[in-house]
Design goal:
The chain is an alpha/beta fold and 373 residues long. It has one domain: Alpha-Beta Barrel (TIM Barrel), CATH 3.20.20. It has helices at 9-16, 71-83, 95-98, 107-123, 142-145, 149-167, 217-233, 248-251, 282-290, 309-320, 336-341, 346-360, 363-370, and strands at 29-31, 38-40, 46-47, 49-53, 88-94, 99-101, 104-105, 126-133, 173-180, 182-183, 195-196, 205-207, 240-245, 271-275, 298-303, 326-330. Strand 14 (271-275), helix 9 (282-290) and strand 15 form a beta-alpha-beta unit. Helix 1 (9-16) crosses helix 13 (363-370) and helix 6 (149-167) packs parallel to helix 7 (217-233).
Length: 373
């Protein structure tokens, strides 16, 4: 997840305001027939995803760490997210919380997920449900870590079957994101660890295999996507599926998408990429984003001005709106006022500036960029 927390700013409130009235049923969101964006299934009106990753709270606790005994915190945060003008919330579900064993979904966790669906509907927010998270390495079940590729994929399929069963009839599901930033080893390389790297004490990236064997990376990625989308489609044939990826073209210009290659991502409904523009490198970020124009809607599922400042970030948003159909930033349980109260806290200051930007980006400013010819 890059930042431990990542649209389209006020435009979403403009385009989708009537789709998110609290208490009213939210319409299904689908890719448009021409693949250039999202539309409401009931009216055909364009929809732009504009929201937040709600991956942890102000104390760095993952949502499953407090949603049992501090439900009021989740309720308050969802209302604050709504008040900021968002229409989508991305949540991150941990394997250890949703699977008690290789074939044993945790019913208590699924019950809380169902409760979250109700809260989202009451609040008027769609959910990007991201699964298979193993963000805290120390908490990864030993039985899961010991599985080989085939066994691990079986568990992942059962995870998604359980989640899809719970969510299938919920109007608030924007999409299922199969995994946050899956990666593969290089040709001829054999890895020993499923988790890759660490950021802020968490592991946001994981491998889907440790050894390609005689297979290509595209063959493995394609088989994995088909396995998990198939698990979801057994129970939910309506809601969209995606996978949030690292845009390697941003790091290695000329790199091609793997998960969104034609023979790999055919079962994925739209593209999700994670972009953190660097200072004075907006043009480079835009060039990398263009690589992901593959005839499907594009959501910048994680983004932040952390590395470039608000002014250049605003430039990135305005110019990327020719390609992107949604942006998802970060919200970690603190309002603008609460962030401003934390004097001499640089991180809180950056977050306050970000939230003010998110709330203040007006529909008029982005409308011209979003109205493609």
């Amino acid at each position: 997840m890059g930042l431990s927390g990542r649209g389209v700013w006020g435009v979403v409130a403009f385009i989708a305001l009537d789709t998110c009235n609290c208490g009213a049923a939210l319409p299904l969101i689908r890719p448009s027939a021409d693949g250039t964006g999202f539309v409401r299934a009931d009216t055909g009106q364009r929809f732009v995803a504009w929201g937040f990753n709600y991956d942890h709270d102000r104390d760095d606790r993952l949502i499953e760490d407090y949603w049992d005994h501090q439900w009021s915190t989740v309720v308050e945060d969802f209302r604050e997210i709504k008040d900021l003008g968002a229409n989508v919330v991305r949540i991150h579900l941990q394997v250890r919380r949703f699977m008690d064993g290789p074939a044993e979904p945790n019913e208590a966790a699924l019950t809380q997920l169902a409760r979250l669906l109700e809260l989202a509907e009451e609040t008027g927010l769609y959910l990007d449900v991201t699964g298979l998270a193993c963000y805290l390495k120390k908490d990864v079940p030993k039985w899961y870590d010991a599985l080989d590729e085939a066994g691990r994929w079986e568990v992942q399929g059962r995870f998604w079957e359980a989640v899809a069963r719970t969510c299938a009839e919920a109007p608030v599901i924007f999409c299922y994101d199969l995994m946050n930033e899956p990666v593969l080893p290089g040709a001829g390389e054999k890895e020993t660890e499923w988790l890759v790297g660490e950021f802020g004490g968490m592991n946001f990236t994981q491998r889907i295999t440790l050894d390609l064997g005689r297979r290509t990376r595209q063959q493995v990625a394609g088989a994995w996507v088909r396995k998990l989308t198939g698990a979801i489609r057994r129970h939910d044939k309506r809601h969209m599926i995606t996978v949030g990826v690292i845009p390697w073209a941003h790091t290695f210009p000329g790199a091609k998408p793997i998960f969104y290659a034609k023979d790999v991502g055919a079962d994925l409904d739209f593209v999700s990429v994670h972009f953190y523009p660097q200072k004075d490198q907006v043009d480079k970020a835009l060039a990398a984003l263009a690589v992901y124009e593959v005839g499907k809607p594009v959501v910048i599922e994680e983004t932040s001005p952390l590395y470039c400042g608000i002014r250049q970030f605003d430039d990135f948003v305005d110019r990327s709106a020719k390609i992107a159909d949604g942006y998802v930033g970060f919200y970690w349980g603190q309002t603008i006022a609460e962030c401003r109260q934390r004097k001499n806290d640089i991180g809180a200051g950056i977050m306050a500036e970000w939230l003010e930007y998110f709330r203040g980006k007006t529909p008029e400013i982005l409308a011209a960029e979003l109205n493609r010819p």
